[in-house]
Amino acid sequence: MTKEAYELLVKETPPSTFWKEVAEERRKALENVLQKNEKLHKAIEAKDEEISKLQIENEELQGLAAGVQLAENRLAGLSRGV
């Protein structure tokens, strides 16, 4: 807090311009936070979509791995039988 701001706070009645300046600073800070929040929200949505796609891919690959394991077991059984 600047010395000027502090002095305005400790006066009995700060001028109306002080409160306008405080309100404007708060408005700018809020706008900044809202913009950051929007960016984070979009990033989370993108990550959620990526997670969903990766989960589907994982399920597909697990199915493929199970098929490969089955084929490997059959081949091993055929090799033992020869």
TrEMBL record:
One protein family per Pfam: Geminin
Domain of life: Eukaryota
Keyword Coiled coil: yes
Keyword Coiled coil tagged: yes
InterPro entries: Geminin/Multicilin
Keywords, alphabetical: Cell cycle, Coiled coil, Nucleus
GO biological process entries: negative regulation of cell cycle; negative regulation of DNA replication
Location (main, coarse): nucleus
Positions in coiled-coil regions: 20-64
A cellular-component GO term for this protein: nucleus
Subcellular location: Nucleus
Cited SUPFAM superfamilies: Geminin coiled-coil domain
Family: Belongs to the geminin family.
Listed name of the protein: Geminin
Annotated organism of origin: Aldrovandia affinis
